[in-house]
């Protein structure tokens, strides 16, 4: 059984603020071809509401699932990844206090999917993804990095988005004080 991680509401708000900040960067990629589909935008709005002091309510899960469905319904891979980034923002509010590698996806998933959306939108250019990962790493606050370091390294897999997530994870953990590193 996985050990429990010390996690409070302020920690969850920090994780969601980080996730939504990354996801909203690529929302326009989805909206370009899906102007009438507000599901990813609603997920981002719900995440910001929580990050700014709102309650952790059922609407967070509902908007996350709706953004996920939007990601599945589009035939545009870049738009799909942008919708997945939006999905990850409210879902981050449900980070579990269990020291399991998969939980890192709640913390860094929005940034990884945003980076992948950027790559795909620019003709599958990996330099775009690396640039977005660098930007995401530079926005990692000491509090966010401390939360991340309570969890083990993320699991393998997940395709290119998973690879980008692991790159970001290493960058952020590399910025942690020695006492926080796992």
Computed CA radius of gyration, to the nearest angstrom = 15 Å
The protein's oligomeric status is single chain
State the share of residues found in helices, binned by percent: 55-70%
Number of domains: 1
Mean pLDDT: 95
Low-confidence stretches: none
Q: What sort of overall outline do the alpha carbons produce when their principal axes are compared?
A: globular
Give helix and strand order, one letter per element, not per position.
Answer: HHHHHHHHH
Question: In terms of structural class, how would the helical and strand content be classed?
Answer: mainly alpha
Tally of helical segments:
9
Strand content: under 5%
Strands, total number: 0
Query: How far is the N terminus from the C terminus?
Result: 18 Å
Biggest β-sheet, characterized?
Answer: none
Short description:
This protein is about 65% helix and about 0% strand. The protein has about 180 residues and is mainly alpha-helical.
What would you say this structure looks like, in words?
The protein is mainly alpha-helical and about 180 residues long. The protein has one domain (about 10-180). It contains 9 helices and no strands. The protein starts with 8 loop residues before the first helix and ends in an 8-residue tail after the last helix.
Characteristic key phrases:
182 residues, mainly alpha, globular, 9 helices
Write the layout of secondary structure elements.
Elements: H1 9-23, H2 27-33, H3 39-51, H4 58-73, H5 77-91, H6 104-121, H7 126-138, H8 142-148, H9 159-174
Helix pairs in contact: 1-3, 1-5, 1-6, 2-5, 3-4, 3-5, 4-5, 5-6, 6-7, 6-9, 7-9
């Amino acid at each position: 059984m996985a050990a429990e991680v010390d996690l409070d509401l302020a920690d969850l708000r920090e994780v969601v603020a980080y996730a939504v900040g990354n996801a909203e960067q690529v929302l326009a990629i989805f909206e370009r071809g899906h102007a009438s589909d507000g599901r990813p935008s609603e997920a981002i709005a719900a995440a910001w509401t929580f990050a700014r002091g709102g309650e952790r309510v059922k609407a967070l899960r509902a908007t996350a699932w709706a953004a996920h469905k939007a990601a599945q319904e589009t035939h545009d891979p870049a738009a799909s990844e942008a919708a997945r980034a939006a999905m990850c923002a409210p879902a981050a509010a449900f980070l579990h206090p269990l020291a399991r590698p998969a939980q890192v996806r709640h913390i860094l998933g929005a940034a990884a999917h945003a980076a992948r959306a950027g790559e795909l939108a620019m003709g599958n250019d990996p330099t775009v993804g690396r640039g977005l990962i660098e930007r995401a790493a530079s926005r990692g606050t000491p509090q966010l990095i401390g939360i991340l370091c309570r969890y083990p390294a993320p699991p393998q897999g997940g395709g290119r988005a998973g690879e980008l997530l692991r790159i970001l994870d290493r960058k952020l953990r590399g910025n942690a004080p020695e006492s926080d590193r796992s």
